[in-house]
Design a protein that fits this description.
By secondary structure, the protein is mainly β. Helix content is 3%, strand content 43%. The chain contains 2 helices and 36 strands. The strands form 8 sheets. Strands 4, 5, 7, 8, 9 and 10 form a 6-stranded antiparallel β-sheet that branches. Strands 21, 22, 24, 25, 26 and 27 form a 6-stranded antiparallel β-sheet that branches. It is elongated and about 165 Å long. The protein starts with a helix and ends in a 10-residue tail after the last strand.
């Protein structure tokens, strides 16, 4: 009958039997231990010896830290204790442990391992896995926050369970804290510059779990809630200023705190505006075509460094300003290439990142560029006589023309005083004849014959006469016509 009862009972590991004999909970306790995660294959246990022959794990000696009773003398049929039991990972709902196989597996071989759990303050070890598993790593899941317990593992053979390996320190399930961390955007890692009146909008991401507490300070003091607005979310904090003023410049520090841990980030903000004009300017000296100026730096730099000065000049006659120097750093300069006889005014602007100052420092005195005193030295001067009798430098050329088309005759003459020009045809003066038009300009003499006919053919003479003499040149003009004979002298 005993054999029949043993064959009807479900197969179970020796560790389970020991737990049942000691009054321990079942291998899948509700709300006590979680389901297990395994990567190895389960090996079905072989029929076991009666429970009286297997050494059961001893109950803990004290509730705070269960300690196994002195084990019975080791049997050659059961394996030794697993080696290097260690805690691999602890989260807010699970724990993972690992171990190494025992040195001795026993004569009957190894069936697997049984992991057991004992809560702090209890004296009972509860199996986590109902049957032995051939794995060397197990994960207990679905644990509750605040749980604190001990773990041990034993190797099991068909002859029973060997001595367990107990984890020295208890396992405490608590919420995982992610240390706070601030990620400052790249453009805020250097001084953040804004102009007066512009908005300031800083969005700083951070990390941390659970949600950390964020706070801001300005130059080590609390923010002015009348001017600065702060909104903090789960993953970032935003600082907003609607209209920036120069007093808003300084170091803004963001502090993120979580469970005694904190992270800080500092952001430098500089609010600037246009500078004031130079305090004073004066005209030092004027010599030749040059003028020397000197001025003093402005009292208000605009909350930032100056990029230099812009120097301009204006002629009193036109009043128009022209830039002479740009982004000039010294406070003295010399303006050259001024026009003799003119009077000049000068003005200087200050310049920073916002631009030129709204007004300029202007000289009160005019720089007058005087003409140099030149004494004329008279020398004996002999006036040259340019009188010259007429002479033709270009004579008249023979010409052939077609009836009905106007013709021009050219020649050039040289004479001083200006000669009188007389045109003749066949040695007869033709002045005043409307058929001819005579021109004389710069010594070039021109005779235009309007729509000549064959009767206008002949010898034309240009004669130049002045008080020193006369000269003449001739040419022959031939006007060819159909059915008509030329009349020539």
């Amino acid at each position: 009958m005993a054999e029949e009862a043993a064959s009807d009972a479900p197969a179970c590991g020796p560790l389970e039997t020991a737990s049942e004999s000691a009054g321990a909970p079942t291998t899948e306790p509700s709300g006590e231990a979680a389901a297990l995660e395994s990567t190895g294959e389960e090996q079905a246990p072989t029929p076991q010896e009666p429970a009286s022959q297997e050494p059961a794990p001893a109950a803990p000696a004290a509730p705070a830290a269960p300690v196994a009773a002195p084990p019975a003398p080791p049997s050659e049929d059961v394996p030794s204790a697993p080696l290097l039991l260690a805690l691999e990972d602890v989260s807010d709902s699970s724990v993972t442990v690992s171990w190494e196989p025992p040195e001795k597996l026993g004569r009957l071989g190894l069936q697997g391992y049984v992991l057991e759990l004992c809560r702090e303050g209890a004296s009972e070890w509860v199996p986590v896995n109902a049957r032995p598993l051939m794995v060397t790593q197990l994960t207990v899941r679905n644990l509750a926050l605040g749980d604190k317990f001990f773990l041990r593992v034993a190797a099991v053979s068909s002859a029973g369970a060997g001595p367990p390996a107990v984890l020295e320190q208890p396992v405490h399930i608590q919420k995982i804290i992610e240390a706070p961390k601030i990620r400052v955007p790249r453009h805020l890692r250097q001084t953040y510059i804004r102009q007066v009146g512009e908005p300031v909008n800083l969005q700083i991401p951070f990390q941390g779990s659970p949600r950390p507490q964020a706070s801001w300070t300005h130059n080590g003091h609390a923010l002015d809630s009348q001017r600065v607005n702060v909104r903090t979310g789960d993953q970032d904090s935003i600082l907003f200023i609607r209209s920036a003023q120069r007093s808003d410049s300084g170091c803004y520090e963001l502090t993120v705190c979580l469970e005694g841990l904190e992270a800080k980030a500092a952001i430098d903000i500089l609010v600037i505006e246009k500078p004031g004009p130079p305090s004073s300017i004066r005209l030092l000296d004027v010599w030749g075509c040059n003028a020397a100026l000197e001025w003093t730096p402005p009292q208000d730099m605009g909350n930032t460094e100056l990029l230099g000065y812009t120097v301009q000049k204006a002629d009193k006659k036109t009043g128009q300003w022209f830039t002479v120097l740009e982004r000039y750093h010294p406070t003295t300069c010399t303006i050259s290439d001024l026009i003799v006889g003119n009077a000049y005014s000068f003005r200087v602007f200050s310049e920073n990142q916002c631009g030129l100052s709204t007004s300029a420092a202007t000289t009160k005195e005019l720089a007058r560029i005087q003409k140099a005193d030149i004494a004329a030295k008279t020398k004996g001067f002999v006036e040259r006589d340019f009188s010259e009798a007429p002479s033709f430098t270009q004579p008249l050329a023979d010409h052939t023309s077609t009836p009905g088309y106007s013709t021009q005759l050219f020649c050039s003459v040289r004479a001083s005083p200006k000669p009188k020009i007389i045109w003749m045809k066949n040695k007869m003066n033709i002045q005043g004849d409307p058929k001819y038009r005579a021109l004389s300009e710069q010594g070039i003499c021109t005779l235009e014959i309007r729509k000549p006919s064959p009767f206008d053919s002949g010898v034309y003479t240009c004669k130049a006469v002045n008080v020193l003499g006369e000269a003449s040149v001739d040419c022959r003009l031939e006007v060819k016509g159909k059915g008509m004979r030329n009349v020539l002298p």
